[in-house]
């Protein structure tokens, strides 16, 4: 008779992978034998309990089975969609450019799903500089989620769109890309002359 050992593990689901990240983690866990309990919490952790036979694979360091979420990161999904470079004429205010992006996706009969930008995006500075308005909530804009990825340039803003209004971000078919200008915040330092 085999000796079983209880093993408890946790998989951290990256916040920018959404529901698909949780589904991916659950599939990875449920592929293993003798899983007894799975628990999902609001912080993005999937905890599980399973029994293993002595000498059996315990899931690697941190018992996470080496679950790879790279294929669910925003950059990967955008990279696998058709990217349309969008260059509005002149220096327009951020809301005007965003409105033109929405109009283009509508003309193409696509439904906007999400925005994607760099981890240290200039989006909010561009918006503030061109409108004088400071956006407090930085996780959404015009009713769409804003996803951040360090693989995306900080000056790039992509409006990701799919075929149906109920589509998920992972269903992105087209990404409308605009390069945002970089504005320098004026300094109030005074230099003393000798």
Walkthrough of the structure:
The model has no long low-confidence stretch (mean pLDDT 83). The radius of gyration is 22 Å and the shape is elongated. The protein is 22% helix and 29% strand. Strand 6 (140-141) and strand 7 form a beta hairpin. It has 2 domains: 4-72, 2-Layer Sandwich (Ribosomal Protein S8, Chain: A, domain 1), CATH 3.30.1370; 75-179, hypothetical protein PF0899 fold. The chain has a 6-stranded mixed beta sheet with strand order 4-9-8-5-7-6. A 3-stranded antiparallel beta sheet has the order 1-3-2, covered by helices on one side. With 194 residues, it is an alpha+beta fold.
Please tell me how large the radius of gyration is.
22 Å
Strand coverage percent: 25-35%
Mean pLDDT: 83
CATH topology of the largest domain: hypothetical protein PF0899 fold
Please report the distance between the alpha carbons of the first and last residues. 89 Å
Shape: elongated
Helix content: 10-25%
Alpha plus pi helix count: 4
Structural class: alpha+beta
Which spans of ≥5 residues are poorly predicted at pLDDT below 50?
Answer: none
Order of helices and strands: EHEEHEHEHEEEE
For the record, the CATH architecture of the largest domain stands as: 2-Layer Sandwich
Strand order of the largest sheet: 4-9-8-5-7-6
| Total number of beta strands | 9
**What is the CATH C level class of the largest domain, in words?**
Alpha Beta
Structurally, the number of domains stands at 2
Biggest sheet architecture: 6 strands, mixed
